[in-house]
Design a protein that fits this description.
alpha/beta; six-stranded mixed beta sheet; four-stranded antiparallel beta sheet; 9 helices; 10 strands; about 25% strand
Amino acid sequence: MNQLELRKVNKHYGLKKHALHDFSFTFTNGIYGLLGPNGAGKSTLMNIITDNLLPDKDGGRILWNGKETRILKDKFRCRLGYMPQQQNLYETMTAHTFLNYIAALKCIKPGQAETEIKQITEKVELTESLNKKMGGFSGGMKQRVLITAALLGNPDLVILDEPTAGLDPKQRVIIRNMISELRKDKIIIISTHIVSDIENIAKEILFIKDGKLIDSGNIPQLIEKVNHTDKTLENLYMQYYGEVQK
């Protein structure tokens, strides 16, 4: 059983923007949904977990299986799969070349890399485009490349930032089902502002607002807090944020 523990993590941007406020939570194996509108702090949190962004000096601790990630360094990073929200891909590279490049960065042996690339791209229906340059890819195709890259190496911790953005309804179902199959032996954290992406697969939901964890729990626990006869997670989202889901 893996464990990721965040203890009072803080992050400021400049003097005025307090992006994360004393964020504390413990994740174990399973799928977690991070819900909140744009600017809530979801991407900041993910970037800090993945070590792409440093928290404030003396701004909290992040522990992987009881040891601080800043001390573990590469021993932690090699167990991590991360899909960023930004689609900054090498447009002149083919998807196959890019995925082999990512596999090399993860120190995956070439033979193993080829096997994993074949297996994952078949699941996300990307096989026929592997030898095409990514400059001609649609947003949905780029998302599927990034998801494949995140899952290479069979990581214990998977961080997905808006993984279904740009996907058509069929592809969204495929990605959700694939993620759901991985839940038993991994910690999977999915950041989204779309409730339907995670309401049927998440072990727990975390609601983030203005950099603060305002609520968390499993679906039955959370929907009991809805001040409405129609007790749904979407209505709880609207209750907390006053936003209409897209």
